[in-house]
Amino acid sequence: MLPRMTRWSVYLVRTAAGELYTGVATDVARRFAEHAAGRGAKYLRGRGPLALVYRRGIGEQGLALRVERRIKRLERAEKERLVRARPTRARLIELLDTEPGTSLTGSPRSNGGSGPRREPVRKEPGSSRA
């Protein structure tokens, strides 16, 4: 019998100061309760009251972690747009799957993979320039 795939979710929590915290969990309600009780991430301790403003089921843990990392890289205004738009799983992955040569899902990119291969810059002997 194959092991059951754990369904991971990504979520965003708003602090009392309006900051957005991004995390992943298999049970978002339980994890949010931990954050609210001061037992979750150290970053959120003392920053309440907290509000769960967005959550989306993603699937496997690796994909959820990649989605979390991309969300954390977004600027605040982009995170706010994401919270307002409440995108579906597919749309969220589509929105975040913008880095050249990489894919959140591991599927080949439409540009044929990682794009043109770049040769490393080599320093010429006796030259101070790369």
Explain what this protein looks like in three dimensions:
The chain is an alpha+beta fold and 130 residues long. The chain has a domain at 8-96: GIY-YIG endonuclease (3-Layer(aba) Sandwich), CATH 3.40.1440.10. 31% of the residues lie in helices and 17% in strands. It has helices spanning 28-36, 61-73, 76-85, 89-96; strands spanning 8-14, 20-25, 51-59. The chain has a three-stranded antiparallel beta sheet with strand order 2-1-3, with helices on both faces. Strand 1 (8-14) and strand 2 form a beta hairpin. The longest helix has 13 residues, at 61-73.
For CATH, the homologous superfamily of the domain at 8-96 is named as GIY-YIG endonuclease
Separate helix tally: 4
Strand content: 15-25%
Q: How large is the radius of gyration?
A: 19 Å
Largest sheet: 3 strands, antiparallel
Name given to the CATH architecture of the domain at 8-96: 3-Layer(aba) Sandwich
Instruction: Sketch the topology as an H/E string, one letter per element.
Output: EEHEHHH
Uncertain runs with pLDDT below 50, 5 residues or more? Answer: 109-123
Strand order of the largest sheet: 2-1-3
Secondary structure: helix percent:
25-40%
Per DSSP E runs of 2 or more residues, the count of β-strands stands at: 3
So what's the CATH class of the domain at 8-96? Answer: Alpha Beta
